[in-house]
Amino acid sequence: MKWIRVNMSDLSIKVEEAPKKYEQMGGRWLTSSVVADEVPATCHPLGPLNKVVIAPGILSGTTAPSSGRISVGTKSPLTGGIKEANAGAKFGQYLKRMGYSAIIIEGQPKDKESRYLLNISKEKLELVDAAEYKFMGLYELSGKLASKYGKDAGIASVGPAAEHLLVGTGIAFNDIENAPARYAGRGGVGAVFASKGLKAIVTEAVTGQAAVLNHELFETGRKKLLAALQEHAVTKPKGALNTYGTAVLVNILNEAGALPTRNFSRGTFDGAKKISGEAMAEAAAKNPKAGMMGHRCHPGCVIGCSVIYPDAQGNSHTSVEYETLWAIGANCEIDDLDAIAQMNSMCNDIGLDTIEFGDAVAVAMEGGLLPFGDAKGAIALLEEVKKGSPLGKIIGSGCGTVGKVFGVRRVPAVKNQGMPAYEPRVIKGIGVTYITTPMGADHTAGYSIAPEILGVGGKPDPHTNEGKVKLSKDFQATTCFIDSTGCCVFTAFAILDIPSGFEGMVEACNAVTGANWTTSEAYEIGLNVLKMEHQYNLSAGFSANDDRPPEFMKLEPVPPHNMVWDMADSELDSMWK
Ligand code: SF4
Questions:
Q1: Contact 453, 201 (CB under 8 A)
Q2: Which of 275, 338, 427, 458 allows an S-S link to 311, with CB 3.0 to 4.6 Å?
């Protein structure tokens, strides 16, 4: 296995043979291992000792279905702990096809005003001056880079908000059509990337397939995984995700009384229908030139869960996802789909995580900065973030900072990371995930919504605490493995109900790595990654007190179910025993 090591202090680039212990790793397994081994747990996340590790999954660059995820690992400036965030993009597929398993970016240029672009092609690796792109919005940047490096090139880039070193920022990867809309969004990974003086990384478009050791086994595994994805009602062609996008969840969660609304003070939103997947599908059907359901973030995804939403003016907005519709919509009581789509595109352009932004605005609304439902006011705040004004810096620093500045007690965050789109007082399993994952409140870390709400892989009662620590732990461990393969987390819907799908995923990994893992061993690998991440956080100064919900969730019943968070702390702590 070889990787690229870039030192931004002396602007050197080396291709290194990775130590043998990393040989079979990919994605999150690799990023978290390198961070744990090379980044001092107590270092300043925006200082020279932190590193950014970018790694495609084990299967990325192959023909395995929906396997083009790329992981970004670092020490998070938002949480202070370890972070992995991933996105689906051609970037990682190209990297893997060139034979690189990771890029490790370390150090920091002496001149903080400098900007660089890392260009990776089959012929050369070079750092070039990128001063001309400083503080440029990402739509303009992706157009310029496509003209220079080719329209199919892969791009990872950070927007002006990340260049202001705001901890609510992510790294954008360009999609098939070159929109900078696929985000490794959470935890401030964008600010760490920007702190290295990097504006962008470009990878040459490379066709073909990444190296596979056992082609026969790979084909067996690939076909099993593909069959499961094409059979399951959630992931199949014209299935739920393909037809309505991730926003199919808006109406479902609203009916379950678990769609956090008005800064987590209610579980239902009167305007839910207006911001639903069904509403977007209707708009896309009316304007198929500007809109599209079933969009794919990278070549080879067979699910196609994404949406290009056409607004009333005929503008296209790429990747309008459930989490964004909820964060900027229900959570801020904004029911204007066009305004939410506009803010989604603005966040993509300036490099802001839409979940953290929506949480921050809702807390600011509660603090009296602007009224709930004020879409124009929220858009104006995004302009402030782009400018880097003092108010913009507060908003771009996430809901925890906004809560402190405006004296708001109802701050929906764990480890200082804002909660996503599921009410944990009502859906206990996802609550355990938010509270215990080493990542800070994160739904993808252990998506127990699948069984608790959608009845996939079982149908436990979402309202009870019983069995939820084990449920979350199993999901978190399995997710760590899936995040290491490069497969999209949405493949879990199919493999939970169709075990041959998971067998196929593991067999395909065996075919690439030469390993001989069983599905139980794959689970153990994931569990060990999870424990390693937890241990890193303990070394960084975390304790059991960081695995706790915000206090208001224990005290305030949330209507309509009028439930509080009532799981004992000792039960939460059993996660790590
Ligand atoms: S299912 Fe959606 S998020 Fe996952 S890889 Fe496909 S398009 Fe991307």
A1: no
A2: 338
Residue type, 451: P
Give whole-number Cα distances, 257 to 268, 277, 472, in Å.
Answer: 5, 18, 21
User: What separation in Å is there between the alpha carbon of 93 and the centre of ligand 1?
Assistant: 14
Q: Which of 66, 241, 320, 323 to mutate to test the pocket of ligand 1 (most atoms within 8 A of CB)?
A: 66
Distances in whole angstroms, Cα of residue 110 to Cα of each of 11, 113, 125, 160, 451: 11, 9, 21, 20, 50
CB atoms within 10 A of CB 568: 9
Distance (Å) from CA 235 to ligand 1 centroid: 10
Name the token pair of 381. 């705040």
CB-side neighbour CA atoms (13 Å) of 356? 38
Question: How far apart are alpha carbons 371 and 227 in whole angstroms?
Answer: 49
Residue having the nearest C-alpha atom to atom 4 of ligand 1: 488
Q: Which of 167, 49, 6, 30 is nearest to 92 (CA)?
A: 30
Of 43, 89, 77, nearest in space to 186 by CA: 77
DSSP state of 422: S
The answer, yes or no, to whether any atom of ligand 1 lies below 6 A from the CB of 88, is yes
Cα-to-centroid distance, 65 and ligand 1 (Å): 10
> How crowded is the C-beta side of 528, counted as CA atoms within 13 Å?
11
Q: Which helix (H) or strand (E) holds 127?
A: strand 125-129
Ligand 1 pocket, 296 CB below 6 A? yes
**Cβ-proximal residues to 387 (8 Å cutoff; 6+ apart), any chain:** none
Q: Is the CB of 248 under 6 A from ligand 1?
A: no
Q: Which residues in the chain show pLDDT less than 50?
A: none
Name the token pair of 137: 């919005």
Expressed in angstroms and rounded, the spacing between residue 286 Cα and the centre of ligand 1 is 24
Q: Using alpha carbons only, how large is the chain's radius of gyration in Å?
A: 22
Contact 565, 434 (CB under 8 A): no
**Phi, psi for residue 231 in degrees, rounded to 5:** -100, -35
Supply the pTM of this predicted model.
0.97
Show Cβ contacts of residue 153 under 8 Å, excluding neighbours closer than 6 positions.
145, 146, 202, 203, 204, 205
- Assess whether the C-beta atom of 65 lies below 6 angstroms from ligand 1: no
Atom of ligand 1 lying closest to residue 66 CA: 5
Q: Is 305 in the pocket of ligand 1 (CB under 6 A)?
A: yes
253/560 Cα distance (integer angstroms): 12
CA distance 21 to 356: 35
Dmax over CA atoms of the chain, in Å, equals: 62
CA-wise closest residue to 153 among 205, 94, 93: 205
